[in-house]
Design brief:
The chain is about 35% helix and about 15% strand. The chain is of the alpha/beta class. Helix 2 crosses helix 3, helix 4 packs antiparallel against helix 7 and helix 5 crosses helix 6. The longest helix is centred in the first third of the chain and has 14 residues. InterPro entries: AB_hydrolase_1, AB_hydrolase_fold, AB_hydrolase_sf.
Length: about 260
């Protein structure tokens, strides 16, 4: 079956690369992002693995057809999309809010997940930079997004030249900022976030890797310091919240290690 041709309103919009395979790598982006955040990694994996990156509800191409929801709702939407694509077993890679979503899917359907790679995942502790996320959700000018996005990366990392303009253009789409504001209200609890039962993650049968940067200003690195022993934690110095953007080669290496 050629899944690239599927047009199904129950399936989240997605971008696929690489040859069809039984256990593709599924990428789940973070709050305020979209599938394009994974493009560099997908292109580099194109000759090695099948990869699929979804747009989450109320994000990107899923703005019109999918209502704003919290991480649980997004997890259900991803599972429905896997069903629509007839994918019974996959590798999951999630960043930030997408990490929390991937973890929820793995805890609910462990038999379906071959491996779990979580990049600066949400839900590993109550602390979160809620003020920054709320501003990031609604900023509609390139100058404003440039200032905000600089807080997402390490001090030495230079943002891609057109990223701020791209994000500002996305926010200017009718209804986009309002939808993200609604999502932020669903995933944030005042100035904190909900916490996942990480002890349950440690009991899951698939290999799990967590990747974090020491300069993360969104979610503090210490949230990975006391994870259960079976979970492998990889912490990189001088790296911020956008680990897949800042150190793509290291992230690709860890994903491939986890999916073997």
């Amino acid at each position: 079956m050629n899944i690239d041709s599927i047009q199904d309103v129950t399936c989240l919009p997605f971008t696929a690369f690489g040859p069809e395979s039984a256990e593709p790598i599924i990428f789940i982006h973070g709050f305020g992002g979209d599938a394009s955040t994974w493009r560099n990694i997908q292109v580099q994996l194109e000759n090695k693995r099948r990869t699929i990156a979804f747009d989450l509800p109320a994000h990107g191409r899923a703005l019109a057809d999918f209502e704003p929801c919290n991480a649980v709702g997004s997890a259900k939407a991803v599972v429905k999309s896997l069903d629509a694509l007839k994918l019974d077993r996959v590798h999951l890679v999630g960043h930030s809010m997408g990490g929390a979503i991937a973890a929820l899917i793995a805890m609910r359907s462990p038999e379906r997940i071959a491996s779990l790679t979580l990049l600066a995942p949400g839900g590993f502790g109550p602390e979160i930079n809620a003020k920054l996320l709320r501003r990031y959700a609604v900023g509609q000018t390139e100058a404003e997004q440039q200032v905000l996005l600089e807080q997402f990366v390490g001090l030495e990392f230079e943002l891609p030249r057109k990223l701020a303009d791209y994000v500002a253009t996305q926010r200017s789409t009718p209804g986009a900022a309002e939808a993200l504001k609604a999502v932020s209200g669903l995933i944030l609890e005042g100035e904190s976030q909900g916490v996942l039962p990480t002890d349950k993650l440690g009991e899951l049968p698939m290999p799990i890797k967590v990747v974090w940067g020491t300069q993360d200003k969104i979610l503090p690195t210490r949230q990975c310091h006391k994870l259960p022993g079976p979970i492998a934690c990889h912490v990189f110095d001088r790296v911020g919240h956008m680990v897949h953007m800042e150190i793509p080669q290291e992230v690709i290496r860890l994903i491939l290690e986890n999916t073997r």
